[in-house]
Amino acid sequence: MSENVIELVNVRRYYIVGDFCVKALDGVSCSIRKGSFTAIMGPSGSGKSTMMNLIGCLDTPTSGFIKIGGEYTNNLNEKELADIRNRRVGFVFQQFNLLGKQNALENVMTPLLYAGVSGRERRERAEALLERVGLKDRMKHLPSELSGGQKQRVAIARALVNNPDILLADEPTGALDSKTGDQIMELFQDINDEGRTVVFVTHDRGLGMRCKDQIYIHDGKIVEGY
Q: Domain total for the chain?
C-alpha cells in the first residue's frame, strides 16, 4: 500500500464577504497517495482552487488539519510554510506566470536563485529540465516569442527545478487548444510515470478521467461523482 503524501482532515475554509460567509471548503477529508496522478474535479466555484492553495501552503484552513509529506502545516509560521512550498511543492498555473523580461532559461533558473544554488548548478539544472520538456532550442527565447504550449512547458520545467515531491497544476491546459492540451497532459503523465506525485485541478471531466485517481468536489464538499 502506497503511503499518503497529502492528507486533509475535516478541512474548512470560510471567507467573510460583506455580511455573508462563503464556505469555499466545508468539511473536506481526503488523502492522496505518494506517486499518484490525481485529478481534483468539479465545476467552476466548487472549491477546487481553494483546495489546491491549501495543499500548496499558499493559504491556511479556517479549521481542520492538513499534512504534507507527514508534516502538519496548521501551526507553521509563514517562513515555515514557504520552506515547505520551496522544498516539497511545484506549481503550474493556467496563465503560466512567467517573467516577461526573462528568457526561458532565466525563468527556470529563478527559483534556484532564491534557494541559494550556485550559478553554474542553476544553469545546468535549468538546461537539463528545458531539454526534458522539449525546449532545448528555445532556451534563449522570451515568453513573448513562445507559443502557449511552449510557455506551459517552461512553467512545468520551472516547477520541477527544485525537485519537489508534489507537482500541483491548476487548470494547466485551460489557455491551450485541444491538441496542445493533449501534449501537455502527456507530459504530466510522463512526469508521474517517473514517480512524482501529480495533482491536477480541472473542471474538464474528460481531462480528469485521464488521471489515475479522481476527487470530486461540489459546493465545497467532496461528492461521489461529477
A: 1
Place of cell 482552487: 49
Of the candidates 47, 33, 9, 97, the residue with the CA atom closest to the CA atom of residue 223: 47
**Segments forming the whole domain that contains residue 85:** 4-223
Report the C-alpha gap between 113 and 141 in whole angstroms: 20
165 neighbors 196 (Cβ within 8 angstroms)? yes
Grid cell of 176 as nine digits: 491551450
pLDDT tens for 81-122 read 888 888 889 999 888 899 999 999 999 999 888 777 888 899
State whether residue 150 is helix, strand or coil. helix
Q: Rounded to an integer, what distance in angstroms lies between the CA atom of residue 98 and that of residue 112? A: 15
Verdict on whether the full-model pTM lies above 0.85: yes
For residue 193, the tally of other CB atoms under 10 A from its CB is: 11
Residue indicated by cell numbers 527556470? 108
